[in-house]
């Protein structure tokens, strides 16, 4: 009996310990989230898209775009808005892995009802062998459920006012540096296929099911990038899309329709697109979405007044920058480095 | 997988604990063995075969030695001739065992070093290099388990322990997962028995183990992984920096290495504790050492002990040293005889110490550096003793201790500078730049914000070091009368735990803007 | 016993060797001291001390050293 009582007391203490711990973690997480929401400029570039997505008013986003840096260097929501009235948001992150795409999607569904989810396919080919994949899963899961993992570094901003300023247009930023790609044609036909790691496959399926559950259509898109794409990947994706009955667009095969000029449209030797490249891709995709999916034109909707405002500002700034890019072709030297560094945060 | 990786901490370790508790007591060692091989496999894949091979071989040598010992006893222990004959045989078997293991280690670890230097010599002689430099895959922890295997054989030979007849249990001694990557190098007598007792998990072990792991994460994630950024920046581009920065980086590296290695040891020892296994300590507040000899009894203790037991002592009773002693007594007098014997025994120890860290001239230099310093310390001992007596110095007084500790720090920092440098040449250049180009103003003109660390990082590093030092001083000066966090009243103890957890979560160098830093000693 | 103490006194005459029980543990004898001690013991008692005997338990006190010598002499 004494033993039993002791045992019970011990268990009670363990329980109490973890209860207090959970409360503490919850409290700190809550506080950290509040601080982050109140001070956008204190949030690291990579965490901004999720933060801004959470801040969008309920049920206003119709198209959600997911992916790594290829996604937010290619798609510009405000441009689609100005032309077709499509309300899109880029939930991309530099170096986003597919687990993070999944949790970004979960974040979106908390508050939004996007009809369409575009997944930039480069996340599918990030290497995730065994342990590294497991680590990514744990990290993405942990960050989603315990925001303190995501925002833990905010103490630096609180103490030393470290800032991460940025001009953000629904997940898109201007990238006005040009560094041409001169490697020539890169989509050489073959019947070979690129392998997908099993972790990625699992999460791709989870993303698909989550879309099904929330009545959103999932579309796979490969943006033009000689550094990241080839025909092997095209074959893999095409087969996957066919099997699952998904739409798949490989823009790497549509260079001519897009009018991509690798002398002018590349940010960094054929890895990412600059503003000029993004303009062309967005123009194409906007029309594609408008024609193939039944998306509402929200421009007359009063709830979207702020979008119209932002759209105007975007149009002006973008035109200005595009003109400048055409004129002095290249910004070079240190200035170019600085801008590129700002364009693509460390986490490549 | 690695000890500071979330997969280890949040998946592997809990899973093993759970499975361990669910397994019947008698079978628990099997589970631990399986966990060890799985752990090894996640890092080195097929190379786990090396570990298995070593285990089979070590087991066999142990049995062979035992067989010789038994048959010697049967044949009449009393007769000296028989005994000497058997002793000779045993010695041969031991030599076979040791040489095979060292040979395997040498082939894998030192082949390239040998090839490069041989090529260099051949080039001098006008020949083209004939040895190809190959990239050999090194099984993780080979330097650690090889030493454990050798110590097992020697201990059986010396009859310090009975050989383990059970292959699986010996395998567990060599492949206990917390010790695989970077030790501590334990002797069979230390962990052998505890490993297969299969004790039930106990609350106090679990809480003490977790606390220890937490403390290790604190050192590694808050301090070491930040210092890493600065250290890498300076050591990889040392030409770009002046002497004061180089000196500062040497100190930073020493601290990084300590926080990392000892932090990892905390995780390792804590992991062992969870299962009720006491793994030997590897650090004992090394920065409180008053001289280099003491430092080496407090820093990487198990390596020092190993070298002392299996290199230093065997040498000191070897024929060579005995001959020297006899010769010295006749011709040289006590002082020089003793100094000579010390040198004879110490030199191989420090050559081994240097080489063990890797085949590279800067490690060899590192070993020789300590050889010279320790020998000098031994040579000056009589003079020092005389001085203490002449001036009536109280050796426990702080005015005597603190300058000695500071002097030892300088020795340590210089040693680690060479240890970390990219080759001996770089080490020399860096070392001399400290004297040539020492400008204090670079310490506060903003240069330090250019290494990838910002103001906040320096604040946290400083605070972290302060906390670790405070804990060290409390223990060293025994300010709590031998009591620790474990003996505190519950609210205080919990407050410490919560504080540590939150500190690691908030100030840990993980996630965006940081990179995961691999364990340094896992590379040796 | 006396002979052992004599040898020890020769190494360091400021220590009361007979009374100490932790010669190694308390570091009154360091590893260099042990080397000289071993060679002296071997010469005076005509025994051979193997590396395996070099454990703290054998050197922690004068009694322990004495016991070890006796054991080795019997061999």
Automatic annotation (TrEMBL), chain C:
Signal peptide: none annotated. SUPFAM superfamilies: ACP-like. Residues 1-73 form the Carrier domain. InterPro entries: ACP-like_sf, PP-bd_ACP. This is Acyl carrier protein. The lineage of its organism: Bacteria, Bacillati, Bacillota, Clostridia, Lachnospirales.
């Amino acid at each position: 009996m004494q033993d039993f009582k002791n045992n019970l007391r011990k268990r009670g203490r363990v329980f109490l310990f973890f209860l207090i711990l959970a409360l503490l973690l919850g409290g700190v997480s809550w506080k950290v989230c509040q601080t982050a929401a109140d001070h956008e400029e204190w949030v690291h570039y990579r965490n901004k898209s999720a933060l801004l997505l959470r801040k969008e008013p309920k049920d206003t986003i119709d198209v959600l775009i997911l992916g790594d840096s290829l996604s937010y260097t290619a798609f510009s929501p405000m441009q689609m808005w100005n032309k077709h009235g499509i309300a899109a948001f880029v939930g991309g992150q530099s170096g986003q892995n597919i687990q993070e795409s999944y949790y970004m999607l979960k974040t979106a569904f908390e508050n939004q009802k996007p009809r369409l989810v575009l997944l930039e396919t480069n996340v599918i080919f990030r290497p995730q062998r065994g342990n590294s994949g497991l680590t990514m899963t744990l990290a993405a899961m942990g960050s989603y459920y315990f925001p303190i993992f995501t925002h833990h570094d905010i103490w630096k901003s609180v103490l030393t006012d470290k800032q991460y300023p940025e001009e953000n247009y629904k997940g898109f930023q201007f990238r006005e540096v040009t560094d041409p790609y001169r490697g020539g044609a890169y989509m050489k036909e073959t019947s070979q296929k690129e392998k997908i790691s099993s972790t990625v496959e699992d999460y791709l399926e989870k993303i698909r099911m989550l879309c099904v559950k929330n009545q959103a259509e999932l579309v796979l898109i490969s943006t033009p990038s000689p550094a990241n794409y080839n025909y092997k990947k095209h074959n893999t994706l095409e087969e996957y899309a066919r099997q699952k009955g998904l739409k798949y667009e490989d823009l790497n095969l549509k260079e001519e329709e897009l009018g991509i000029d690798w002398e002018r449209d590349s940010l960094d030797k054929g890895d990412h697109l600059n503003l000029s490249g993004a303009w062309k891709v967005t123009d194409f995709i906007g029309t594609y979405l408008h024609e193939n999916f039944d998306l509402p034109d929200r421009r007359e909707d009063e709830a979207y007044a702020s979008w119209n405002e932002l759209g105007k500002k975007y149009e002006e700034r973008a035109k200005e920058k595009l003109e400048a890019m055409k004129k002095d072709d290249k910004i070079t030297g240190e200035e170019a480095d600085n801008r590129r560094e700002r364009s693509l945060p460390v986490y490549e | 997988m690695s000890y500071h990786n979330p997969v280890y901490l949040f998946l592997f370790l809990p899973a093993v604990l759970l499975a361990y508790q669910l397994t019947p007591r008698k079978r628990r060692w099997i589970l631990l063995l399986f966990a060890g091989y799985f752990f090894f496999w996640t890092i080195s894949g097929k190379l786990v075969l090396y570990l298995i091979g070593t285990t089979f071989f070590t087991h066999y040598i142990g049995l062979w030695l035992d067989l010789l010992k038994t048959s010697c006893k049967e044949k009449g222990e009393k007769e000296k001739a028989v005994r000497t004959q058997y002793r000779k045989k045993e010695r041969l078997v031991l030599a076979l065992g040791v040489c095979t293991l060292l040979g395997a280690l040498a082939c894998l670890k030192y082949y390239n070093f040998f090839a490069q230097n041989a090529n260099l010599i051949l080039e001098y002689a006008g020949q083209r290099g004939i040895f190809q430099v190959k990239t050999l895959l090194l099984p993780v922890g080979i330097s650690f388990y090889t030493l454990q295997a050798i110590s097992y054989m020697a201990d059986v030979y010396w009859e310090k322990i009975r050989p383990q007849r059970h292959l699986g249990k010996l395998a567990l001694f060599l492949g206990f997962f917390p010790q695989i990557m970077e030790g501590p190098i334990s002797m069979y007598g230390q962990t052998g028995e505890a490993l297969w007792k299969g004790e039930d998990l106990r609350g106090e072990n679990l809480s003490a183990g977790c606390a220890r792991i937490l403390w290790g994460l604190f050192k590694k994630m808050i301090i070491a992984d930040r210092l890493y950024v600065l250290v890498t920046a300076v050591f990889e581009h040392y030409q770009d920096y002046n002497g004061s920065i180089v000196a500062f980086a040497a100190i930073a590296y020493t601290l990084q290495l300590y926080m990392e290695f000892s932090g990892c040891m905390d995780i390792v020892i804590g992991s062992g504790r969870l299962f009720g296994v006491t793994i030997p300590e590897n650090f004992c507040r090394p920065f409180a050492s008053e001289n280099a000899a003491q430092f080496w009894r407090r820093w990487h203790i198990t390596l020092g002990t190993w070298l002392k037991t299996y290199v230093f002592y065997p040498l000191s009773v070897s024929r060579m040293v005995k001959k020297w002693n006899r010769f010295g007594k006749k011709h040289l007098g006590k002082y020089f005889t003793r100094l000579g014997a010390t040198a004879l025994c110490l030199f191989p120890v420090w050559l081994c110490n240097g080489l063990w860290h890797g085949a590279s001239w800067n490690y060899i230099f590192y070993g020789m550096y300590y050889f010279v310093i320790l020998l000098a310390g031994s040579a000056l001992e009589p003079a020092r003793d005389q001085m203490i007596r002449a001036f009536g110095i109280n050796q426990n007084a702080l005015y005597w201790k603190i300058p000695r500790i500071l002097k030892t720090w300088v020795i340590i920092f210089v040693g680690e500078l060479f240890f970390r440098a990219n080759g001996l040449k770089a080490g020399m250049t860096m070392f001399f730049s400290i004297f040539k180009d020492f400008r204090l103003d670079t310490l506060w003109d903003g240069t330090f914000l250019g290494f990838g660390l910002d103001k906040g990082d320096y604040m946290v590093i400083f605070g972290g070091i302060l906390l670790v030092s405070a804990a060290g001083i409390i223990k060293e000066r025994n300010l709590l009368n031998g009591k620790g966090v474990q003996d505190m009243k519950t609210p205080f103890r919990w407050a410490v735990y919560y504080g540590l957890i939150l500190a690691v979560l908030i100030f840990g160098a993980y996630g965006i803007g940081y990179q995961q830093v691999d364990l340094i000693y896992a590379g040796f | 016993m006396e002979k052992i103490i004599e040898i020890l006194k020769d190494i360091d005459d400021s220590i009361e060797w007979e009374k100490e029980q932790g010669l190694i543990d308390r570091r009154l004898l360091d590893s260099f001291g042990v080397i000289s001690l071993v060679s002296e013991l071997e010469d005076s008692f005509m025994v051979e001390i193997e590396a395996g005997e070099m454990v703290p338990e054998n050197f922690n006190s004068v009694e322990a050293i004495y016991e070890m010598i006796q054991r080795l002499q019997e061999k």
